[in-house]
Amino acid sequence: MTRYSDVNRLRHMLDHAREAVEMAGGHCRSDLESNRQFCLAMTHLVEIVGEAAARVSQQSQSRWQDIPWTGVVGLRNRLVHGYDAVDLNILWTIVNDDLPPLIKELEKILTAEQ
Known about the structure:
There is one protein chain. By secondary structure, the protein is mostly helical. The chain has helices spanning 6-24, 31-34, 36-54, 58-63, 69-81, 88-113. It has one domain. The protein contains six helices and no strands. α1 packs antiparallel against α3, α1 packs across α6 and α3 (36-54) crosses α5. The two termini are 22 Å apart.
């Protein structure tokens, strides 16, 4: 038996996505280049969102089809395996444009699962 349920994995995705968006709110795109700690934090938070998504069962992924599972997991893989070639413009866009709708969808799912 796994240590965490799929609902717990969704909670991990939500918590880390929220943290990334909240942290980015006090910064601008250029801070990813000038502030190494901020850049590492953003990268790591997005990696965790993807790692948690990868651990959600295929059955649950099929159930919650409004989550872009392939993209979320693929981004995690790109960040981890392409660590030396991360496009900071793309990372910034993901945090600011893609994570907020993901957060809303995760909140909707988790509310329904309670």
